[in-house]
């Protein structure tokens, strides 16, 4: 019965960023007709200073237009009513604004705070562009409720540099309807099983690919999981913060050869120029049998028309090492270390509002009302997404398992990723490409162009 309710609710969903709904918290009525939390933020570093005593501050934010909807605007209205000295200057940045933050700081155009992916944090902390948050979090009565393991990810030498928002493990998705049509009852547990199952699912006449992975952009993002599953890594972090490149590690070559076996078997997406959004949409439309898939993409898949009963989630198949390693990804809030103090204080008011228990509870209640919640991990010990929504047991189990095998993405990914990207693209598009030759060439080029600068910036 719960599963049928899940399907009925999810099939009416909009995207997670385009929801309006009603929370059950007492408080002022919002523009969307919902009840928002009485106080989602804190007065932070202001002490006993009243709002009337504060000097006006304009807070610059980088936003994506898809976040603009009735519910988010009503939350913004509440924040501004509670912080009348703050005004917000919103600059629309499509894609992932956090990835452009470093360049923005260098050019003097960066926002005062930004949502940043876990992937970028190592390089951002090392570069000195993030403000330490200790003076804020030490006096915030909610900080002790944040999960220590995730807080520790962004703590260096006692300084805290981020407040985690959500944790999204990278999993492996399979279309249960396509599996059933092919006579398959269980998801693959190994690379070899995945390849054989993909052959059974593959149906070019119906535009169905048995398997998919990124080939046109960000290929290192998915490729790293296969390297880990083969027992290696793409880089090594030294104790002094410098990096060593390991593009020619035997595990890298094993992963590359597996990619080639998928391509040679004809089970990968026929159009290798398809980008990330194309792949996830095609999966939702039943055109892909299986692919790497983050837990927070469930909402998008359903909003693109997928029956939630058909969306299976499992740990990635194990490679030659026997490991099912994957990444723990997610988002966190950071403050620009180069902005002035008044803006830093205002940025903290914003962060503490939008990561408070009251705000998050209202947010997830609204999503659950619309049936659009993804099985993410809330990085707080005093709440879990299952408080607001009933997921299939399969989702609960895989989220729990992901905690045991999840890891942060490879060291220096933002600096070294483009070089891996080219090598992966070459082995997928050129049938005569030799993995050892291509990755050796990629490592040499990366050493010549990027390694010295990275090590200089990150050496402790």
TrEMBL record:
Signal peptide range in chain numbering: 1-20
Annotated region described as Disordered, given as residue ranges: 30-52
Bias (Low complexity): 38-50
Alphabetized InterPro entries for the sequence: Bact_solute-bd_prot1, SBP
Entry-linked SUPFAM superfamilies: Periplasmic binding protein-like II
Alphabetized UniProt keyword annotations: Signal
The keyword Signal is annotated on this UniProt entry: yes
Pfam families for the chain: SBP_bac_1 (PF01547)
Protein name: ABC transporter substrate-binding protein
Organism lineage string: Bacteria, Bacillati, Bacillota, Clostridia, Lachnospirales
């Amino acid at each position: 019965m719960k599963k049928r309710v899940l399907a009925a609710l999810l099939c009416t969903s909009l995207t997670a960023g385009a929801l309006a709904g009603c929370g059950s918290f007492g408080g002022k009525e919002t523009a969307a007709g919902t009840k928002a939390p009485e106080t989602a933020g804190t007065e932070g570093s202001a002490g006993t200073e009243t709002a009337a005593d504060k000097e006006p501050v304009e807070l610059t934010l980088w936003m994506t237009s898809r976040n603009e909807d009735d519910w988010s605007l009503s939350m913004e209205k509440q924040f501004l009513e509670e912080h009348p000295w703050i005004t917000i200057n919103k600059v629309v940045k499509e894609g992932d604004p956090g990835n452009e933050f470093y360049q923005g700081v260098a050019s003097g155009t960066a926002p005062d705070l930004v949502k940043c992916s876990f992937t970028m944090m190592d390089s951002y902390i090392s570069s000195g562009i993030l403000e330490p948050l200790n003076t804020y979090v030490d006096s915030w009565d909610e900080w002790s409720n944040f999960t220590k393991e995730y807080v520790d990810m962004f703590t260096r030498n006692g300084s805290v540099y981020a407040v985690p928002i959500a944790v999204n493990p990278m999993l492996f998705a399979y279309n249960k309807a396509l599996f059933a049509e092919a006579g398959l009852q269980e998801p693959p547990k190994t690379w070899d099983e995945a390849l054989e199952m993909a052959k059974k699912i593959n149906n070019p006449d119906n535009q169905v690919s048995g398997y998919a992975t990124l080939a046109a952009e960000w290929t290192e993002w998915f490729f790293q999981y296969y390297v880990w599953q083969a027992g290696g890594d793409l880089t090594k972090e030294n104790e002094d913060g410098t990096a060593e490149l390991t593009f020619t590690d035997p595990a890298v070559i094993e992963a590359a050869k597996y990619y080639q076996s998928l391509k040679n078997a004809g089970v990968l997406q026929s159009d290798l120029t398809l980008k990330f959004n194309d792949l996830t949409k095609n999966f939702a439309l039943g055109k892909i049998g299986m692919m790497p898939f983050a837990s927070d993409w469930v909402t998008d898949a359903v909003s693109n028309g997928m029956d939630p009963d058909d969306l299976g989630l499992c740990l990635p198949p194990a490679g030659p090492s026997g490991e099912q390693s994957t990444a723990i990804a997610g988002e966190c809030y950071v403050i620009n270390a180069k902005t002035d103090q008044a803006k830093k204080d205002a940025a903290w008011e914003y962060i503490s509002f939008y990561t408070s228990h009251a705000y998050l509870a209202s947010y997830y209640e609204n999503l659950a009302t619309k049936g659009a919640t993804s099985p993410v991990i809330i990085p707080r010990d005093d709440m879990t997404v299952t408080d607001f929504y009933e997921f299939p047991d399969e989702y609960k189990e895989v989220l729990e398992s992901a905690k045991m095998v999840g890891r942060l993405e490879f060291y220096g990914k933002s600096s070294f990723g483009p070089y891996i990207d080219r090598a992966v693209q070459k082995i997928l598009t050129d049938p005569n490409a030799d993995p050892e030759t291509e990755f050796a060439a990629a490592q040499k080029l990366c050493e010549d162009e990027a390694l010295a600068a990275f090590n200089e910036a990150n050496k402790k």
